[in-house]
User: Fold Ethanolamine utilization protein, EutP from Secundilactobacillus kimchicus JCM 15530.
Amino acid sequence: MMKKRPMFVGPIGCGKTSTIQRLTHQEFKYNKTQSVEFFQDYIDTPGEYIEHRRMYTNIATTAMDANVVVIILGVNDQRLIFPQGFSTMFAMPMIGVVNKMDLVNYDVQHPDYLRVAAQLKAAGAKEIVAVSAKDGENIPVLEEAIKKAASKESNTAK
Assistant:
């Protein structure tokens, strides 16, 4: 049986892989995810999975190996990516991540941050963490939020 781990879901270019590289202390380099990848303690999904509704079944199937769903968007993304109530697809905790906060000088009152955070909350994220994978800003906060959510999941699964 495969170990349960956090699954990252987000559009192409939002920084899923870069954030995982920071969390796992790997060399920081761009890498387009072509298929589901298992990084140490994390699951990285291709952006196409969320950008094309016909691929939602791939997200649901991959989630069988997850204990937490991390939905992530770049602060500069103007699109509506995650539908309202997206979390109802999953029987596990969901965390929202606003990445690329360096683009708005880490301002959580910036209109772009507020718009993206609201989209993540509407999708079902109970907690929102603002990070910059590029700079490594707030990565320890995200790591702690994931651990806390995974701990809640393992307690409710018993």
Observations:
- The chain has a mean pLDDT of 92.
